[in-house]
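Hello forum,

I keep getting stuck at the same step: I have a sequence, I want structure tokens, and every attempt I make locally crashes halfway through. Rather than fight my setup again tonight, could one of you with a working pipeline run this one for me? It's a single chain of 1155 residues.
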Amino acid sequence: MEKARKSQQTKWLVVLLITAMIVALCTPAEQSEAAKKPRLSKKTVVLTVGKSKKVKVKYVNKKTKITWKSKNKKIATVSKTGKITAKKKGKTYVTSRFRYRGKKYVLKCRVTVKKAASISTKEPDATETKTPNTVPSMAPSTQPSAVPSMQPSAQPSVIPSTQPSVKPSVKPSEQPSAQPSVKPSEQPSAQPSVVPSAKPSAQPSEKPPIGPTVAPSSVPTAEPSVAPSTQPSTQPSSEPTKVPGTPIPAEEGKALSLDFEDGKNTYVTGRQGKETLTVTEGGYNDNYCLKVSNREKNWAGPQIDVTHNVTDYTTYTIEAYVKHQAGGDRMINCMWQAEDFAGNITYTTIQSLKVPTGNWKKIQATVVAPGDVKQLHMYFEMQNYQSEFYVDNISITEKHLDLDKVLATESLSEAYSKQFPMGCEVYSYNLKNDEILQFIKHHYTRVTFGDELKPESLLNQEKSKASADGMPVINTDIIDKCLSLAQANNLQVRFHTLVWYSQTPDWYFCEGYEAQYDGNGTAKTNITNLVDEETMLQRMQSYITQIIQYTETKYPGVVYAYDVVNEVINDNGCKLRTGTKSLYGAIFGEEDNTYITKAFEYARAAQTAAGSGAKLFYNDYVGMASPGQMKAVVKYLADAKAAGTIDGLGMQAHQTNLNVSDGDNIKNALNLFKQNGYEVQITELDFASKDNSESGQETLANAYSKFMNIVLTQKNSNNVNVSGVTFWNLTDLDTWLNTQKDDGPYYPSLFDENYMPKAAFTALINLVKGTTPTATPTATPATVPTATPTTVPTATPSTEPTAEPSTEPTAEPTAVPTPEPEPEKPETTLTLDLSEGNILIEEDGYTIGDGEKQSYTGAYTISGNSTVTANSITISGGTHTIVLDNVVITTIAGSPIALTNEAKVNLQLSGTTTLNSPAKKACIEVPKGCELSISGEGSLQALSGESAAAIGASGSDKEAEAGSLGTIVIYSGTILAKSGRNGAGIGDGRCGQGGGEIIIYGGDIYAQSAGNGAGIGGGGSAAKTPATLTVKIYGGNISATGSAYAIGDGRSQTHCEVAIYGGAIYATPANKPVGTTWLTQDTYAAERIVVKNYSGIQKVTIDGVDQHISNFVIKDINGTPYTTCNFNLYMTKTENHTIVITDTEGVEHLIEVTR
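Reply #2:
Ran it on my machine without issues. Output:
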């Protein structure tokens, strides 16, 4: 029976299998494949260098448009058809993006490239210069792509989508790099902005020959994006040519002129290809203009191919009129997009303009056109891509100097030839413009390249990772470009700089040349894999030796001085920079000057071995700041001086006081440096004048004259060895002050916009001749271009360009207030020690303990510990900047920090500050009428007692005794604010009177109420008739824990109003993140991000805009990370959005948000 049953089962099984086979054979192939999800034919590919393999997307139809992209083209490239070609050893991945059956797909194939066995290479040793071959002997085996698969960013990557957490310092040597964000081995074709930090230095004892020994060869400005299969060795047989085409017809005297008055659009196209460009009525002072609509990206907009209308490295005035009707102000950018002959694309801002709604606004800028380009476009873009905008009367007009008049003026360098050489700050493109070059050579004999020779430009990360000896590898193509131009024009160069805490990449200090972080951010203090002292010294020796050997071998006599070390003294006192800003300080310690001494030792050894006469300098701006800082410079350089490895000091001289009231400091510094045997140079000289009237120019002339008179007197009467002066601009048009300060324009130069001398120039000439000042020559009326773009181009062609974002959300259905810029860190402060007693700061001075009041109106640094015997800080009235430097305060009666009498305080965090307060007292009390802003790189822990907010209002169980709230603004920093029961973490206390405003633009914020209060907002209860308390959030990483709501009202309250426009928020309770009045609930919605789905999160972008959520980790109030949690990203409800999350392994995860 059993046997028969099994036989029957077998028969049925056979029947089922045959039926299934027949059905399968009868099913059309298309139907079968349609049911399958698209995937790659290979998920991993292993290749040897020079080999190729094709990867396909399976289960899509032939009409599906697929975009391929390589994460690292130096390791492997991928063609439009999915053919992967191996370039060099390493690992990367290629991505295919496409839309199929209504869904978007992003598929990735991991690529491993192995070194070909037949190729034997030898890595240079630590003293051998590693020079990339930038001149191929033959055309690459495949044609470099002219257009990247995705639109690159049109804006500098440093501009955040929300208020930036760190405002660039106004100190010129601490400014961000002006170099584009290309890999250092790929020299950008577009020009960087003028941001001072390079410094010329001392005159050699013997003037070396600077004439070229051989004619400099032409060096390509970038490597081909598709490398040849074998290393080329000789020059290509034919010169590269521009894309075919003819110039756009223009009015006589103009390179381009478009006014649309014929009612047609013939020459303007859309960058994305999806825009609608319509000629419509209502032009600027004429009949028609161009309307731009139906944009899908912020970078989308009209573009004009001007390849054959402009000439390389020629100066032009760009003019256009723009308008929008989107409501409020919008930033409209006019840009260059330049593609070089290797297919690399760079972007340069011509002008960024804030345009009010409904009004035509004129774009007008004088710039130098990019050079050595295959194709050049000029384009316009506007933030908030859903908004339309208009363009009219576009023109490009070539401008020239009146060289006869310019060169007829007396030469500055000749006038001072018996005193010291004169120099100026330049960029390489200045020297490629013949007219500007003649101006430079007429007045100066020395140049300092503003940013092009700094470590971040010369260090090559990928080659350093692959080096056999573990030493860093340098890019020499940038050195070649700069020094060959100087050599050909008999200009001496100050090489700036070799060792500097800023504009040196963090990875240079890390194991494996790759920075790793602790999960709490990407600040220098979050790095976990810094190398040890011995390894860092080896890297420094290798880097310094390579630079000097290469430079002195190929360009002997061109460099007259090296800035070996730059700015090691901190801003606030007389010590070395700490690990919060300097990774040298983090590795060697705050009081260890070993790396300074060794840097000069290595430089002297390389300079001596090369037989060079170049001088070795230390450069800093503290030389004229205070007597203590002057002595600190001498102290930390004493070992190098004793060893005979340092020659001189560079004193930076950016002057903000036109009365030169610090003349005594200048004299004392020069005298001190003379006593210690130093040669001295004045570097980066300018005066921050904003008055260009006749009287303003006379004031500027007096300032320059007073300053230079001090220098000449000290040199000639006191025997101070002053060996050079460098001015930090060419004309008023290209000053760094107008690119780094928001309150301009400034007019600091000796020369006006026409390159003609101002009263200041005449004053300096008369001073050195010993004559009475005469009237300033009349300037030529024609406007003359400057060679400086206004912003830093972004050259990475892997991301989509975005318009310069404002602090508003990406898509804004309602008007959002424009935030104030984050307060800048003060250049100098007065340090007060809390351990000496209670500190009272008033509008006109301060008092410590029982001491007498001291008059003072500048910025403060407060340090030290206060025990429970209760020293505290009170700020009464006035407006103040206060730096908290590792302050610890525990009080038993009042608030550790209290604002009173309508005080306005810019609180800046440095190090770790801890505040503990008793019941009913806030750790930082901000009552009605007072304003507190918090920023900085440090952290603040505020733990309050019962009934009070940790930061905000004090509280009470009696309404009459409860506090009220002023204004709190948070820009940056790590803030942990935990209240006792009945208080908010940040906001009101118990029985709060309400009122006030809390605004958050950035920072890592952990706010928690122990009970009944909100994390951010109201306390445990409110007064009977409380005023409205407003909370506005534009950005930041926020973890908020409350009772009734995480953000908004406390228990039994209804007086808080909350508006959320952006940021990443983790809320407890999760089902009540905001309440009770959520102003933006109908216009902004949250997209939940599940943290456990990713290996970690290092970057998040929304519609291409970086949200500054780097290494985001949600923590509880005790600092314990949550491993399974969600956080919300807020964006407009009515628009579709694209979120890209980059995990800690570098993999991008795409989230399409469809509203």
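The CA atoms of residues 991 and 1023 lie 5 Å apart. If your local run keeps crashing, start a new thread with the error log.
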